[in-house]
Amino acid sequence: MDKFAVIDYRNAHPNEHPALIDFLLDQGANPWNYLPADEVIKTFAQIAGGEGQILLACKNHEVVGLCVFLFPGALPTKYDQYAQSRATVYVSEVAVHRDLAGQGLGSELLRLTIDRARALKAQLVLIDRHEENLASAGMMRKTGFNELRTFVDLERRNYGSRKTTVMGYQLS
C-alpha cells in the first residue's frame, strides 16, 4: 500500500457487506476481540435493515478500516443500564488493516462516528473492549471516551483478565 495515499471516508454500500464481514473477521481477529461470525452477521443484518451504519476508511479505493455502529433505538439491551433512557449510538466494531495500525485511522473513524451520532440527535456513544486491550484503550481515550465500568465477562472474554470495559462519550 502506498503510504502517502490519501484516506477517504465514506458510508458502506449494502452490496459491500459480504466483503466487509470478511475484512472484519480477518483484520479484527486477535485474542482481545470477541468476533463470532454469527454475531457479526447478525449485526450486519441489523445494518441492512436500517438500524445502523458502517463507516469505511479507504486508501486507493481499497477498504483499510471500518467502524460498525447501531443507531439510537437499536442499542443492545445489555447496554440499557449505561444509556439510562438517553438516545445512544453503540459502536460494535472498529477494525483497521494491520499494515496501517497505529496511524490514527481508528481514532478518526470514531471521531467521524461521534459526528454522525450528533446528527442523529444521540446523547451518548457507547463502545466496549477487553480490559487489557491497550491499543483499543488508547484509541478510545484519544477520541474522548471515558471508562464507565469494568466487569468480569466470561461469556465474551476467554483471554487474559476476561474482563470487559465499557466506555462512553457524552454528547449532551
Describe this structure in words.
Strands 1-2-3-4-5-7-6 form a 7-stranded mixed beta sheet, sandwiched between helices. The protein has one domain: Gcn5-related N-acetyltransferase (GNAT) (Aminopeptidase), CATH 3.40.630. With 172 residues, it is of the alpha+beta class. It has helices spanning 17-27, 37-48, 80-83, 105-119, 134-142; strands at residues 7-11, 52-59, 62-70, 88-96, 124-130, 146-152, 163-170. It is 30% helix and 31% strand. The longest helix has 15 residues, at 105-119.
Q: What average pLDDT do the residues reach?
A: 95
> How many β-strands, per DSSP?
7
What form results from the Cα inertia axes?
globular
Quaternary organization:
single chain
How large is the radius of gyration? 15 Å
Main sheet characteristics = 7 strands, mixed
Strand content: 25-35%
Name of the CATH superfamily: Gcn5-related N-acetyltransferase (GNAT)
The side-by-side strand order for the widest beta sheet comes to 1-2-3-4-5-7-6
